[in-house]
Amino acid sequence: MGRRWTERLGESPPEGGGAAEGGRILGAMAIIHKATLTPDKPTLIGAWLDGRSWAGHGPDEVLGTYRFDDPDGEVGVEAFLLRRGERLFHIPLTYRAAPLAGHEAHLVGTLEHSVLGPRWVYDGTEDEVALGCFRRALGGEQEQAPLEIWEDGRVVGHRPQRVLISREPGDGEGEGAPSEGGRVRLPRVLDGAPQGAWLLRARWEGQERVVAALT
What we know:
Blueprint lengths: L1 H8 L9 E3 L2 E3 L3 E4 L3 E2 L2 H10 L9 E9 L7 E9 L2 E10 L10 E7 L3 E7 L4 H11 L8 E5 L2 E6 L4 E6 L14 E2 L12 E7 L2 E8 L1
Parallel strand pairs: 3-10
Antiparallel strand pairs: 1-2, 4-8, 5-6, 6-7, 7-9, 8-9, 10-11, 12-14, 13-15, 14-15
């Protein structure tokens, strides 16, 4: 199982980020290396959830993931849709090449990437890089990142998205620009739809949930 997951989910931050046009991030790609991760991501996430009082208990089933590009090209941003027992979870993560000072309480764990070396994995709901990506997506300034597969330093293919993310107005009728303020809400437990002026909706395998809101 580990090899299957590493080939599908091995990660690296995009190099150089995406180009910007009129405030909108364009041309951003999430680079996926064919690599071995130790431990694999489902194992890392499961161990972290076991220590969270709100997470209950498994078994765990990863339903899909989606990614955003860090415009600075330094941090990997990926969100997991995961079923644990009878409950559905949304787990945004960030991947960093070094520890993030002051965020020890938000460390999900560390893993070894056979191409990139050690990765420090953080709770994306507490990481400003991930929050910035979600804020821009809620403002219509950034889109879900396409997925490039790399092997031996070159692109060998593109991966279809298992999860599709779309933006829609919420109960606030879309008034005001996200850059002017507002709070990004990223629910971890998808047992209800968060409310806000703008929403991000995830769709996968005939299912859908609101995974982010700007309040």
